[in-house]
Task: inverse folding
C-alpha cells in the first residue's frame, strides 16, 4: 500500500500531492481528529481535485455513544482504566528517565558510564514495552467482552464506512486529537477496508503507525516525558511519527534527543516538518527522510 | 572603529543639564516619556508639583520603605532613580508632605494601576515584564459561563454564595476536574480568573475544568485553620457540586487553590481531610511560623495560622499528591514560602515551586495561574497534532 506522509498543513501542500499520485475518482477523508469541527472541511476539500467524502467518524462515534448507552458506559470504564494505567506508566517512566539523565551527566570512566547508560535505557524500554503490552491486553479484554461487530449501531456504521472506502481511490487523514483519531479508526475498523493509497499528516500520520508517541517539550508546565499512548492502524511499522518536531521537541538538546532515539530503536523517529513529503513504498522510508540519530542529531536516511 | 555615540546617560540626567529649565522644557520632557521612565535596569520615578518632601512608598522587600524623590534645581519636578531587576513588577504610591500634612496617592503621571480589595496602586513594569497575553480578553476564546449557586452550610451556619465556572464546551456527558478557589470573588475581579480560564482552555494549556469560586464570611477567621471551613468545603460543598455537575469525583480530580490566607485555608482543609484532595495550588501563602517563642510579628489574627503551621512543620503530613507553590520575591512571605517547599517535599508530595519578581498582589497571582493550573490539570496539548 502506498502511503504519503506530509508535514503539518497550516500552509497546505496537499493540493500538489494528489496529482502526482495519479489518482482519479473519489477521495475519502477523515477529519475526526478535529472533533466537533469535523464537518468544517471546506478548506480541505479545496485541496482535492473534487470534494472529498468525509467518513464522519467522530459524528458516528457520538451516534454510537448516544444510541448504545451500554457500550458507551463500557467505553467510559475502559477509558478510566487506560487513564489509570497511563498514570502508573508515567510515574515509572519519570523515575527511570531521571536515572538515565543522571547517569548521562556523570563523569568518571566513559566505558562504565556508557554501560550504565545502556542499562538505564534498557529499563526505560522495558517500561515502554510493558505499557504497550498492558494496553493491548486491556483492549483485547474489552473487545472480547464487547465485540463491536455484535453491536448493531456500530455494525451499521462500519458497513457504511466500508462502502465508502471500497469506492474511494484514496484516503486522506488530517491531524487533530490523536487519541480520538486512533479510537475512531479502530472502532470503525478502517484498516480492514483499506486498499487505496493513504495521505496523512500530523495526528493522521501518527495514527498509521504501530507506536503512537505523545510528546511536547514546550508545554506550559515544562517539558514532559515523551510517552507511548498505544498503537495506531500499524500500516507503518517501525516508524514513530514526530509532527512539527522543531516546534514541539527540544531538538537542540542532543542528550534528550539521543535518549529518545535509543529508547525507541530500532523504530525510526521520523521528523514531519512543514513542507515534508515522504512517499512510503511497502513500508520503506525514502532516502532523505529526516530522523533522529542515536547521537541526538537530526540526520537523513541514505539510499539502501 | 566605533559607531555613532549612543547616550547611556539617563533622560533625567540630560534634563538636569538643561539651562534654563523652563516649565515648557519640563512639559515637553514629560510629553516625550512614559513615566516611570524605564532605561535598562533603571527606572526613573517623577512627580511634578509643589511640596516640602516627596517620597515613593511601597511594600517591596529589600528596598527602603520610603524612597525620597529629589527636587530638580529650580523646578517643580521631583525624581528618584530605582534599580529594578529585569522582569519586575513594582507597585507603589507617591507621598507628599506640605508642612505637617502628608498625603498618599497614585502616581498622577502613570496611568498603570493595579487593583486589589484594598484599593488601587500605581505599578511600574521594569524592563522585561510584559502583561501575559492570556490574561487579556481574546475574542477567539469561547467564553465559559458563571453560574450562581447558594449552598446552605450547617458548618458555617450561613448560606454561602458560590460562583461556578463551566467551560465553554461544557457537556453533561463529560467528566471534569474540580478546582475550588478561595477568595473567589477577588480571583474573578482582580486576577481576571474567568478570562484566564477561557484563554488557557482555548489554548489547550489546561484541561477543561469546573471551578467553584467561594468567598469567605469573616475571612481572617474562616481562612486561618478553621475546622468549620474545612468541613464546609469537604462535607457540604464538594458533595453538592458532585451531585449537580459531572465531575470526576475522585481526589485526583480535586484541587484547592488560594492566595495569602486563602492558601492557608487550602492547606489546612487538605490537612484535616487528607484523602479528599489530589492537589493544592497555593500562592504567596501566609505560612508564618516560629522556630522558637511566639513572637511571630503578625498580630493576633496570625495566632491560629502560626499554631497550625508550626504543628505542620513539626510533623509534615502527606495531604495531597501534587502541590504548586508560588511567591513573589519582593514580599516578606518569600522566606516562609521557601521554607515550606522543603517541608512539603519531606512529606512526600510532588512540589512545583515558582518565584517571581513581584509582590503580594493579585496581578502576581494572576500571572502565575498558567504555570500553576497547567501543572495541576494539564491541558490536552500533548494529544493535538494539527
Result:
Amino acid at each position: 500500500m502506498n502511503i504519503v506522509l506530509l508535514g503539518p498543513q497550516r500552509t497546505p501542500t496537499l493540493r500538489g500531492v494528489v496529482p502526482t499520485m495519479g489518482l482519479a475518482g473519489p477521495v475519502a477523508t477523515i477529519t475526526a481528529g478535529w472533533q466537533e469541527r469535523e464537518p468544517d472541511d471546506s478548506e480541505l476539500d479545496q485541496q482535492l481535485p473534487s470534494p472529498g467524502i468525509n467518513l464522519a467518524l467522530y459524528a458516528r462515534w457520538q451516534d454510537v455513544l448516544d444510541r448504545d448507552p451500554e457500550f458507551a458506559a463500557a467505553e467510559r470504564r475502559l477509558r478510566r482504566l487506560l487513564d489509570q494505567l497511563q498514570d502508573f506508566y508515567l510515574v515509572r517512566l519519570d523515575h527511570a528517565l531521571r536515572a538515565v539523565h543522571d547517569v548521562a551527566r556523570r563523569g568518571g570512566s566513559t566505558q562504565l558510564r556508557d554501560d550504565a547508560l545502556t542499562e538505564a535505557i534498557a529499563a526505560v524500554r522495558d517500561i515502554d514495552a510493558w505499557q504497550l503490552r498492558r494496553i493491548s491486553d486491556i483492549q483485547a479484554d474489552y473487545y472480547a467482552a464487547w465485540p463491536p461487530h455484535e453491536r448493531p449501531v456500530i455494525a451499521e456504521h462500519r458497513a457504511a464506512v466500508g462502502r465508502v472506502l471500497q469506492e474511494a481511490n484514496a484516503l486522506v487523514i488530517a491531524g487533530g486529537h490523536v487519541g480520538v483519531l486512533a479510537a475512531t479508526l479502530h472502532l470503525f475498523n478502517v484498516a480492514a477496508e483499506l486498499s487505496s493509497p493513504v495521505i496523512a499528516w500530523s495526528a493522521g500520520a501518527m495514527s498509521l503507525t504501530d507506536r503512537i508517541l505523545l510528546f511536547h517539550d514546550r508545554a506550559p508546565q515544562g517539558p514532559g516525558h515523551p510517552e507511548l499512548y498505544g498503537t495506531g492502524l500499524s500500516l507503518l511499522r517501525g516508524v514513530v511519527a514526530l509532527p512539527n518536531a522543531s516546534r514541539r521537541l527540544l531538538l537542540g538538546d542532543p542528550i534528550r534527543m539521543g535518549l529518545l532515539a535509543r529508547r525507541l530503536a530500532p523504530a525510526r523517529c521520523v521528523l514531519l516538518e512543514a513542507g515534508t513529503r515522504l512517499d512510503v513504498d511497502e513500508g520503506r522510508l525514502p532516502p532523505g527522510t529526516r530522523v533522529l540519530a542515536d547521537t541526538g542529531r537530526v540526520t537523513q536516511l541514505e539510499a539502501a | 572603529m566605533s559607531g555613532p555615540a549612543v547616550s547611556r546617560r539617563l533622560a533625567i540626567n540630560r534634563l538636569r543639564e538643561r539651562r534654563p529649565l523652563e516649565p515648557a522644557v519640563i512639559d515637553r520632557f514629560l510629553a516625550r516619556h512614559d513615566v516611570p521612565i524605564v532605561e535598562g535596569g533603571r527606572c526613573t520615578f517623577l512627580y511634578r508639583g509643589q511640596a516640602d518632601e516627596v517620597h515613593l512608598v511601597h511594600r517591596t522587600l529589600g528596598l527602603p520603605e520610603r524612597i525620597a524623590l529629589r527636587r530638580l534645581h529650580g523646578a517643580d519636578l521631583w525624581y528618584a532613580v530605582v534599580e529594578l531587576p529585569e522582569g519586575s513588577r513594582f507597585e507603589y504610591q507617591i507621598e507628599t508632605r506640605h508642612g505637617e500634612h502628608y498625603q498618599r496617592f497614585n502616581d498622577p503621571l502613570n496611568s498603570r494601576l493595579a487593583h486589589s480589595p484594598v484599593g488601587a496602586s500605581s505599578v511600574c513594569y521594569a524592563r522585561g515584564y510584559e502583561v501575559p497575553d492570556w490574561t487579556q480578553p481574546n475574542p477567539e476564546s469561547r467564553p465559559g459561563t458563571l453560574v450562581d449557586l447558594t449552598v446552605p452550610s450547617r458548618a458555617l451556619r450561613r448560606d454561602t454564595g458560590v460562583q461556578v465556572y463551566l467551560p465553554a464546551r461544557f457537556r453533561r456527558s463529560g467528566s471534569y476536574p474540580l478546582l475550588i478557589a478561595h477568595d473567589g470573588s477577588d480571583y474573578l475581579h482582580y486576577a481576571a480568573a474567568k478570562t484566564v480560564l477561557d484563554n488557557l482552555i482555548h489554548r489547550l494549556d489546561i484541561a477543561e475544568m469546573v471551578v467553584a469560586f467561594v468567598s469567605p464570611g469573616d475571612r481572617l477567621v474562616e481562612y486561618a485553620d478553621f475546622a468549620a471551613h474545612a468541613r464546609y468545603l469537604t462535607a457540604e460543598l464538594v458533595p453538592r457540586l458532585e451531585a449537580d455537575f459531572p465531575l470526576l469525583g475522585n481526589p485526583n480530580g480535586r484541587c484547592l487553590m488560594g492566595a495569602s490566607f486563602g492558601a492557608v485555608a487550602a492547606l489546612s482543609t487538605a490537612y484535616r481531610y487528607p484523602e479528599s484532595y489530589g492537589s493544592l495550588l497555593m500562592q504567596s501563602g501566609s505560612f508564618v511560623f516560629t522556630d522558637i517563642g511566639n513572637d511571630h510579628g503578625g498580630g493576633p489574627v496570625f495566632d491560629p495560622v502560626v499554631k497550625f503551621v508550626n504543628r505542620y512543620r513539626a510533623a509534615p503530613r502527606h495531604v495531597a499528591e501534587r502541590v504548586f507553590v508560588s511567591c513573589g520575591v519582593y514580599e516578606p512571605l518569600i522566606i516562609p514560602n521557601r521554607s515550606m517547599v522543603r517541608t512539603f517535599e519531606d512529606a512526600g508530595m510532588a512540589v512545583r515551586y515558582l518565584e517571581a519578581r513581584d509582590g503580594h498582589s493579585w496581578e502576581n497571582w494572576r500571572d502565575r495561574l498558567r504555570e500553576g493550573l497547567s501543572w495541576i490539570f494539564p491541558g490536552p496539548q500533548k494529544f493535538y497534532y494539527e
